[in-house]
Description:
alpha+beta; Thrombin, subunit H
Amino acid sequence: MLNNPFTDRMDYSDHYRRKNSKKSASFLLIMSKSLKLIRFLIQAILAGLAIAFVVIYMWPSLAGRLNQPVTGASTPAAPVFSYAAAVNRAAPAVVSIYTQSLQQQAIGSDLAARTGRRYLYRMRSDMGSGVLLSEDGYILTNQHVVNQVHNIRISLWDGRIAPAKIVGSDPETDLAVLKVDMTGLPTAPIAENTEVHVGDVVLAIGNALGLSHTVTMGIVSATGRNNLRSVLYEDFIQTDAAINAGNSGGALVNANGDLIGINSRKLGGNSGAQNIGFATPISQALNVMNQIIEYGSVRRGWLGASFGDLRVTSKADGATGRLGISVREVARDGPAWNAGIRQGDIIVKLDGESVDNASQLLLKISQREPNSEVELEILRHQETFVTHATLIQQPPLK
């Protein structure tokens, strides 16, 4: 049987329309579901924002918590810089010192007439600091902390308290050595290289105002400070780390916790100066301590003369400088006198090195052994000559 082309085309068109109609219905159904889903998501987001706004408005402290980093987050925390390790190295060797002494006090004339006494005596309590430098109890401190006291007690890092006795003292450097009858004590670490530079970070540890093991921080402001007229031999480290009453004799340490000095004093007392304190370099302090322990006193070379700084002068080329050190007084039959040095002379060089600071000259001579010989270049009436002097032991200061 032959096919009817017209009928076949009609059947095909009808089939095509039905097929397209089904696709359109499916598309509309999908679009309807998608729109519902989008509408639901938008409603959920708006509802969430509204709830968050209400919660933060009612409880604003939650906002700060939300900003805190999540524990274990991948972003590393910034490193915390601390001197705790340095303090833990040095502080156990720092001790608090408590002293008692009898103080004489004048009384009024009326009371003196009735009692027949001109003075009353009272017990005075004071405090300071010290540094343990041997396991068997040798302590380095300031001489003014223990001068003319009758009772000395020290308090250790771990809270133990023990009596201490004076081994010896050196007024010329304001240092003293104490001893406690204990063993196995912590000692202060000392750097192999004790050189100190301006700008170094330092920590002062001591019994400041009776607050044991107080730590203050600063930098080295200057080295080799002298002419403070506090002691005869001055070679101080100056620091802006706070040094208060009770810090005297305590430790000045570097950023590693190594001992570099013994805190001594602050400038001016109540003069208004702030953060200007001084410490004796540990190299000088150890030399004094070792000699006190070995000899009972400090052995120093002495030239038998007093000196003064010269004023700044102008040189021929227009530069300024000092010619040397003026000789003010000469002890008859002393080393300087026997070497031909007289009042008014100018010392230009010591052992071939130029000198222009009287305090530094005194310090250099004091560091020589008695009976040692020094070479001095002297200027007198515009003429120079070289002489040699044999030093003797410095006599006690009056």
